[in-house]
Amino acid sequence: VSEIYPGAIYPAFIAIGFALLFNSPAAGAVTIEQICRAIKNVKNVCITSFIPGKTEPFQKIWVSRTLNIYMTKTGQESVLQDLTNKVRKVKSYNTDSVETSPLPTETITATETLMDGFLGLVPFADLSVIPNNAEWNRVGNDLESGTEAIEIYELTWLDKTYAGFTIFNKWLFFVDPKTNLPQRTESYRKSAGNTKYTLLSAMEIKYLSDGEMKTIINEASF
Question: Taken in order 80, 81, 83, 84, is the CA torsion positive or negative?
Answer without folding.
Answer: positive
